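Box 3.1 A note on notation
Throughout this textbook, protein chains are presented in two layers. The first layer is the amino acid sequence; the second is a token string describing backbone geometry. Keep the layers aligned when reading.
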Amino acid sequence: MAKGGSDAGREASARVMLYETIARLREESGKSLAELQELTTYDRAYLHKLETGARLGSPQVVAALDAVYGTKRQLSQLWVLAREDAFGDRYQRFMRLEREATVQYKYVCSVVPGLLQTEAYAEEILAKGRPRDDGELAEQVTARMSRQDILEGDDAPHFRALLDEAVFRRAATDPKVWRDQLEALLEAGQRSGVTIQVVPFSAGLHDLLGGSLTVLWLANGKSVAYLESSKSGELIEEPEKVEALRLSYDLLRDKTLSPESSADFIRRLIEEIPRCEPSDPT
């Protein structure tokens, strides 16, 4: 097949192929939506939205359809490609490079990075973006959580996250959600190849303030960077610019708490979260 077209076009066609395949498989099977609902336990109105492309769905519903139609993992594999439509064009390229990276260094200034978020914490953050409805929010959460498998397995990259103290001073609304998120950070920091460090307010001013930075080292020796704000992002591949950002990261890392002191900092925050005691029935 001739090369050409944008990455966005190829990913968009993957989503079209997914919902067209789902619709075709049901038509060929002769099953009604009501019958499919019984077989998958998913609401038929929701299943219809998968067939028209109004919803991307989740890994669970797509796996259920694979089982019903006997397509092994064909739909699930298409879903993996199609899910990237939930992200912007430039971020789609970053995500592909992220999966190739052997090392990932990250600095975040305001929220826990997506690769370390719990589902409930991610849901609260994404809900602030005013999705159209609960279905769209659920798809956004699913897409975000599905990226976390990058940090699992034998080929997981070495991952270091510098988290500004501001991340920890802006808690989730629900104390339990916040406690679970902090405990998840402690657990992540105990994994081999994962390092989490806190940038305390006492570190003072630095030139990464106001945004988030990710630096990726690829297997071919190349490095790329991604600068991100809450509403936009920029993929940077020019060697001299990437090198300047790597230097900024290294200088900031010199001002962070050690991994051990960072864990102690998080534990103290957990201890400060009030526990909801059950009411006395008497």
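The mean pLDDT is 88. The CA atoms of residues 123 and 138 lie 8 Å apart.
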